[in-house]
Amino acid sequence: xxxxxxxxxxxxxxxxxxxxxxxxxxxxxxxxxxxxxxxxxxxxxxxxxxxxxxxxxxxxxxxxxxxxxxxxxxxxxxxxxxxxxxxxxxxxxxxxxxxxxxxxxxxxxxxxxxxxxxxxxxxxxxxxxxxxxxxxxxxxxxxxxxxxxxxxxxxxxxxxxxxxxxxxxxxxxxxxxxxxxxxxxxxxxxxxxxxxxxxx
Length: 200
Known about the structure:
Blueprint: E1 3-8, H1 13-18, H2 21-28, E2 32-37, H3 40-46, H4 57-74, H5 90-102, H6 107-119, H7 128-137, H8 149-166, E3 173-175, E4 181-183, H9 188-196
Parallel strand pairs: 1-2
Antiparallel strand pairs: 1-3, 3-4
Helix pairs in contact: 2-9, 5-6, 5-8, 6-7
């Protein structure tokens, strides 16, 4: 089965706004999603970007406007300035990496619940109890939060390198097997159309 690399950050509001749609598109076209959580703050300077806090005030203001606009269009709740953001994205990313390797649960539920915890529920996704709750709710062993940390760290770092090599510069970002790239939750329709054309 063909795979689509799905690069994202568990701190990304626009990945949160993508919801379950990436998995629905993948299922419709019989492709798998290869989840590649990465350090978005480290990605920005590597690819000519700037972290949100360092952007011009006009860009920071428009980012919030766009987040609110997109959330309203999708009917999704969102806290524009979450209590626990930014936080350390590594623990939640390691848990996703471990869950993908272990299998047996609902990865879409895991990823969306972690993002919802940050952007809609005012929870700290670096907190072990929050991560364990998300794992358990998605049908995974909560102990995955504490296992495979070395492998998780190595994969997390490699995902960043893979992203730079693949031309990824933001999140969410999808790269198909034929090299087509799609940036942003508002480009999911384009990804869908690309896959519908028989190209993976």
